Amino acid sequence: PMVQASVAAGAELTLFSGDKLLGGPQAGIIVGRSTWIQRLKSSPMMRALRADKLILAALEATVELYLSEQTRNKLPLLAMLFRSAEELRRDCEGLLHGLDVPESVSVSIESTVCEVGGGSVPGSALPGFALRVSGIPCDDFSRILRRQPIPVMARIQQGKVWIEMRTVMDHQRADLRHTLQEAIRQTVTKAES
């Protein structure tokens, strides 16, 4: 359940992962009624389990980013979550432009839905666009992508390789194009031999 739902349901204490919820440092956070928080503070285990000054400073800095106007640019997680489907389509088009693909290989732009994953938003899905590569052996291509100097993690679905653009930052696009080009070349060469 979401943290807000637990609190609204009347939970005396709610514990959650600060890094998953905020995208900041790894930390456990407890919210709840002050009587229970005070009891936790007086526990002998509190000294061993409390967050240190560096974690608290990093948490504070992360929360301040959420409160600032420039949050999206400074927290990669939020930048990825708030990218629109149209931005992702443009990124795919830009990546596809200038990619030299043999006739036997097809690279297309396809609509997709990305699972956000666990943490604070389990099961949430975001619409977007991805590159879909077909016409070459999927397992080989995917393996070669992972073994490049700058590895690329792709997924295989319906006998095709999908490369999601949501997690590709602006400064990584040129490297991704180069990696794709090289991986396609290596896969085709391997398939022909």
Describe the structure.
The structure is a single chain. The protein has helices spanning 3-8, 18-22, 34-41, 46-49, 53-67, 71-74, 76-81, 85-96, 138-146, 173-192; strands spanning 13-17, 28-32, 106-115, 125-134, 155-157, 160-164. It is α+β, with helices and mostly antiparallel strands and 193 residues long. The strands form 2 sheets. A 4-stranded antiparallel β-sheet has the order 3-4-6-5. The chain has a two-stranded antiparallel sheet with strand order 1-2. Strand 5 (155-157) and strand 6 form a beta hairpin. Helix 9 crosses helix 10. 17% of the residues are buried.
Strand content is 15-25%
Determine the N-to-C terminus distance: 52 Å
Low-pLDDT residue spans: none
Portion of residues in helices? 40-55%
Please write the string of helix (H) and strand (E) elements: HEHEHHHHHHEEHEEH
Structural class: alpha+beta
Major β-sheet profile: 4 strands, antiparallel
Mean pLDDT: 88
> How many distinct helices?
10
The total count of strands amounts to 6
Q: Give me the Rg, rounded.
A: 22 Å
Q: What is the general shape?
A: elongated
Report strand order across the widest sheet: 3-4-6-5
